[in-house]
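FW: tagging you since you asked about this chain on Friday. Here's the raw sequence from the shared folder, copied in full. Didn't touch anything.
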Amino acid sequence: MSDGELRSGCCGPVRPSGGAAAGPAGRAPHVSAAGTAPGRAGMVRLEAAVFPMGSRDGWTVRGDGEGPVHDVALDAYWIDRCAVSNAGFGAFEAATGYVTEAERYGWSFVFAGLLPSGFRDTRAVAAAPWWRQVDGASWRHPEGPGSDLAGRADHPVVHVSWNDACAYAAWAGKRLPTEAEWEYAARGGLQGAAFPWGDELEPGGERRMNVWQGRFPDRHTRPDGWYGTAPVTAYPPGGHGLYNMCGNVWEWCADWYAPDYYARSPRENPTGPALGTVRALRGGSYLCHASYCRRYRVAARGSSTPDSSTGHQGFRCAADAAPREGR
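HL: got it, structure written out here
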């Protein structure tokens, strides 16, 4: 375990450099045994389209690189309706014997509010003390030793790094979505809206996503009953039939992240910078709150190092689509 300083990025804490890495940064670890690819069940096919990507509205987080707004042309592709669940990741682990990076490191980051009363003292992130380094925390034990997945089979898997997500996707015969694919899917056919359903956070007073309600980080009113993750199909789906594109868990994308990328990105099928140190994350999480993090919107961008894992980061997969027959 590294003795480096625990620091926080825009989407949560990142691992200190110098730890026992599970593989080269930015490259998915080898999966020792192939499973049976789940195919396209549980996915939505989105046809080729052009859409305005990015945001210039008052919600924009300065410095994240949400602009300039620019037209992007995408080929047809498939994308998962839901984030990968604990049950789904468990099937991958059972078929391959895969060991996640959190398990290899021996620890991961957990939100302090989810730790039980009397939990032993743990190292806190200096700029975000609600994040704790917890020995034994992993996808199987989301809050560390003594916690398990009972009642959470249908919740999104967490404590998975970008490398872990790529390993799962390869086993499933899929890949991670690009930032452009993710944003187009999240918009659900709307252009320029803040959320998959429009610009109002709670239209008609209806809760549409799992984000923090109350005073962060010490008081959560839990109006919908969730403190932490919610099931992957919680809340109504967006216009493309996709669930929880905003809130619940941050989702890894394929791209390296750079805040100036939109100013120089290609119009057709952008895949991010050629090189980088952090990978893109999208969608926000159950810890997002307007008082400090407004990144629970379709245009919001985040990032973290490929080997980092936390209790609020997960993923969904995408896949290339062949042209329709006869075209």
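FW: The chain has four helices and 16 strands.
HL: agreed, and The helical segments are 86-96, 101-105, 162-171, 179-187.
FW: great, closing this out.
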